[in-house]
Specification:
Blueprint lengths: L6 H7 L12 H10 L5 E6 L3 E6 L8 E5 L2 E4 H10 L7 E5 L5 E5 L19 E2 L6 E8 L2 E8 L10 E2 L19
Parallel strand pairs: 7-10
Antiparallel strand pairs: 1-2, 3-9, 4-6, 5-6, 8-9
InterPro entries: KMT5A (IPR051760), SET_dom (IPR001214), SET_dom_sf (IPR046341)
GO molecular function: histone H4K20 methyltransferase activity
Protein name: SET domain-containing protein
Length: about 180
């Protein structure tokens, strides 16, 4: 009975879990996207896999992990880049904007013009149709599109994050994923 904690003492030190809704407010998303300072992620070089993104803290299901950051271009420009370069499918993100127009975020260049000293996390996330733990969501900040990656389940520290690129589906052809606006 000596090792039983006192309820009052336990409640004094208890802190509620942080809200997973907090990072989805427009101001936080805009700040994190502009600064590319997504916390809890690190790039790791894994033998046989190359560079991948691994968590350095746990993430809750539904939590925003990071964004897909790149140059906004038209669907046709994206298809042209895909056909004329060695760009991997994961470095071009096709989607339909709120006006029904086909668009593409181009991240095939390792360094973007707005963050020349950083390699962004979103472009390094690997593909997995069966073991995906992220889902992309279309989000708008001041009418600018932002592709956010949300955890589809609880993710543990040290776990590699992945999403389904959608490029193996018959409908791909640069049409992009059907994204749910957040």
């Amino acid at each position: 009975m000596e090792n039983v904690p006192d309820a009052a003492e336990f409640m004094k030190d208890w802190k509620p879990p942080r809200s997973i809704q907090a990072p989805t407010d427009r101001k936080s998303i805009r700040q994190m996207s502009r600064r590319q300072c997504w916390k809890g992620l690190q790039l790791m070089n894994r033998e046989g896999k190359g560079l991948c993104v691994v968590t350095s803290r746990p993430f809750a299901c539904g939590e925003v992990i990071c964004d897909f950051h790149g140059r906004l271009i038209s669907r046709d420009e994206g298809l042209q880049i895909h056909q004329n370069t060695e760009a991997q499918a994961g470095h071009l993100f096709f989607y339909t904007n709120k006006n029904g127009q086909g668009m593409c975020l181009d991240a095939h260049e390792e360094r973007c013009h707005c963050h020349p000293n950083k390699s962004t996390f979103g472009r390094q996330i690997k593909h997995s149709a069966k073991r995906a733990n992220l889902s992309p969501r279309l989000h708008f900040v001041e009418d600018d599109p932002v592709i956010l990656f949300m955890a589809t389940r609880d993710i543990q520290t040290g776990e590699e994050i992945r999403y389904d690129y959608g490029d193996n589906k018959r409908s791909f052809a640069g049409d992009g994923l059907d994204l749910t606006p957040s």
